[in-house]
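Closing statement on the adenosine-5'-diphosphate sub-project.
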Amino acid sequence: MRSTQKTLALWFFLVIMAVFLFQAYESKHTKMIGDFNYSKFTEAVKANEVATVTFRQDSSEIVGEMKPEFDKKYSGTHFSIIGNVQDEGFKFLEQHGITPNYERADNGGFFQSLIVNWLPLILIVAMFLFIMRQIQAGGGKAMSFGKSRARLLTEHKNRVTFKEVAGVDEAKEDLQEIVSFLKDPKKYTKLGGRIPKGVLLVGSPGTGKTLLARAVAGEAGVPFFTISGSDFVEMFVGVGASRVRDLFEQGKKNAPCLIFIDEIDAVGRHRGAGMGGGHDEREQTLNQLLVEMDGFESSEGVIMIAATNRPDVLDPALLRPGRFDRRVIVNKPDLKGREQILGVHTRKTPLGPDVDVSKIARGTPGFSGADLENLVNEAALVAARTDKKYLEAEDFEKAKDKVTMGAERRSMVISDEDKKVTAYHEAGHTLVNRKLSGLDPIHKVTIIPRGMALGVTQTLPEKESVSLSKTTAENMIVFLFGGRAAEEVVFKDITTGAGNDIERATSIARRMVCEWGMSKLGPLAFEKSGSEPFLGMQYGHSGHKEYSESKAEEIDAEVSKIINTGYAQAVQILTDHKTALESLALALLEYETIDGHEVDMLINGAAVSEIEKYRNNRRESFNAIAAAREKKDGNDPVGNSGPVTV
Ligand code: ADP
Ligand code: ZN
């Protein structure tokens, strides 16, 4: 590109120079005679002083040259006058031995005319060529729109295997087959089998779909191409389709290999549907994808894996046999899965002796693999901030709170009065929880404000429950009212702090009546469960009631009854155990946070001061274990041998 510019500049310079030189030459050799006219011309002809005469018809000019010897006389050699010559004029000239020339146009020099007439055009053409060349040269960019953006990750770089993917055993089993297809396609085609071309991984974000796909490639030892569905969708028409073509070309060149399309719903949405009308460009891209998928044979060893969390919006054509006809569901990990995933991600982090991975797993229901990885990372950051050698249980605790509830708001100014109310409120929840059966035990209680909440009472599920008994549902309502009840019992006044508790309690009560058939109205479903409308479908159905007005009144009455009974029970429990309530609240005001064990100590009658002792003992035994471990393992403190209860 640079050299083109230089060459052009050089040519430009040369042309300009030529013009100047020519003009200089001409002006030197054509010295015009000043003050010349027709009569002087005839005089000169008569005197035989003129050498040549030329008629310029177009400009009605007579130009000519004097004989050199008269140079001095006229102080010039050339002349030019306006005039036309008739027949007599010719005769007159011929009489004096001059044969006049004719010229149709000013031919004052080939170069001059060339420059005057053609230079602008030449320059324009040159500029045009120059711009064209620049576009082409600079535009690897401009011309490579249609190239796919697929990134190739080969097995040498960051190879991932199934070992690194934990807690999704079913999905791994399903994909095992794909691994063996990729390893040895012939084994299957020999018997006339058709190797699947595409696998659709379905699961919510962060469940490890990308990781699984990479692991498949890693296990089979084949190249891994990854591209996101949104990479196909561009502003420019036709780009998506040509990217698809390029992707498949690349794939075939590198066969056997695995092509992974993340977020396929970006291109694979139902054609002709969707909000805001059709999207031609996207449809073209999808069509191209379908065509390409039909066009290649997986016996060539190219297998596609696509990921989505919205299989319901995909175009059915994409899921037809011969395309993405296999579906592998990647669920959010269950308790055991979470424990395994935490195991994978804590492999390289030194864990303190008080870290119980299974307990962390219990406290993180609903976390995806990515969430858990993030949790470990946050914990490592928290530990590093205080220059720790290990990640301790409290670091995980802080990390979890930060991830789930937002950062602590220690700077928030809270009056002593508010603090006291919060302490009793949380103590109320806690005490009610401990006095009822079927509820998850208390994990910790805190009055440090966090996110929207002034205080938090956290429970820790012991197992993953899939169903709920009527007694447990009722007890949950009592537990939720524990906070409000404590305010009433202690202060004889109530605050707004229970808003969220009331909302949740009401929701449970309503579902007991309307969904679960847990009231005297019997096992009737009054509301469809799980009919959450999502964009584009089932719109405008909410608010539709499938029961009569009188039934509605009965429902409301039942809900109220459950709520009122629950609240009364909470008040009763707290009135009966007011001493324990006091001591829990005082401990909270003193320490701000207390854990489940400390809660039990206090309820069993321990004094607030005994907590200090308990904490010191725990710290000491922690240090002892850590020291012993360090001694044993030398300098490597990463002895993640399993949980140690202290
Ligand atoms: P998705 O593609 O489903 O959105 P990713 O595969 O990108 O999720 O997961 C993001 C990260 O979360 C992974 O790089 C991995 O570190 C972690 N992760 C997710 N699921 C698992 C799992 N089952 N086992 C181990 N790590 C996981
Ligand atoms: Zn509350």
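The longest helix spans residues 110-138. With this model delivered, the sub-project is considered complete and its resources will be redirected to Aim 3.
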